[in-house]
Amino acid sequence: MKPIQPPPVTASSSAAASSSSSSRPRRRSDLSLPLPQRAPALAVPLPLPPNSAPASTPTSFAELERVNRIGSGSGGTVYKVLHRPTGKFYALKVIHGTHDESVRHQICREIEILRGVDNQNVVRCHNLYDHNGEIQVLLEYVDKGSLENIHIPDERSLSDLTGQILSGLYYLHKRKIVHRDIKPSNFLINSSRTVKIADFGVSRILDQTMDANSSVGTIAYMSPERINTDLNHGKYNGYAGDIWSLGVSILEFYLGRFPFAVGRGGDWASLMCAICMSDPPEAPATASREFRDFISCCLQRDPSKRWTSAKLLRHPFILQYASPSSNSITSNQVPQSHQLLPPPPPRFSSS
To answer: What residue ranges of the chain have pLDDT lower than 70?
Structure first.
């Protein structure tokens, strides 16, 4: 292709150019070429920013090799899988069942939102596959498993664990994500002793894949107003519901057992009566005032009186063992007038 040639220079144009050269700077002739014109209807949009996921994240289902099954629950099974190109392990959650197109689309949209979550105390969601009619979610693999059935009577250790869970929960709540299934089996820990919240949002996804009369998992950790919709005038605040479930879980860690009179594996009616019709459980008198007050701030029957995750991060039970740099929540998020529970009354022997 021949380059575009500049127009020929005539005598008149040369004279005009010389007379005007004193009043304005001389232009470079090679910069005076006309720009090509593009029809507005053919405009090309700017490219989207690149995906924030690491380049090593598996993109092909064929690159994954199942190693073994590591867990199962309502509506799904979790497998440990190997990404052959990198040798890295992941967890693959298979959501069972056949789903119509509208439900499938909603599930995919929910998981796409969860893929944007990035916090050290929340299990990372890496990818989503639709394989053989089953939706499969690729998750971060946490090597030491769940904290279910773990007894943690030491308050310093329990404070550290609780602070990590609250950090992840605060991150989710700040992004308008409600977990809906907080319980000990959904707290995972790795070899670096980092605690991570798992299955966030999965409860909501599973709710859409089951019929209206079925329940996702146990109601043992659900708040009273979620179980009995007649409470709280039929209103349900998912964030406050997560805080109730957190309080029940942390108290279970401390006691080494489910904190209600009925076992967590009890039938629906027994659990409903224990959770909705009895007083909320309390930490024993042998616990510190800080811990007893922390549990009380979580297990308020009135959801509007439960502390938020941001406020709980500044509770004395968390702060008394935390390093100064371990908490980024500012202190003005907690009412300075808050008083801890009074000390328990003395107990006298009957002898």
So the answer is: 1-56, 73-75, 97-100, 200-217, 324-351
Please state the residue numbers annotated as binding site for ATP. Answer: 93
Half-sphere exposure of 295 (CA within 13 A, CB side): 22
Q: d(Cα 28, Cα 189) in Å, to the nearest integer?
A: 67
Q: How far apart are CA 63 and CA 241, in angstroms?
A: 39
Q: Taking the domain 61-140, which CATH number applies?
A: 3.30.200.20
* pLDDT attached to residue 204: 56
The CATH number given to 155-333 is 1.10.510.10
Tokens describing residue 300: 């308020």
Give catalytic residue positions: 181
DSSP H helices, 37-154, are 101-114
Q: Is the whole-model pTM more than 0.90?
A: no
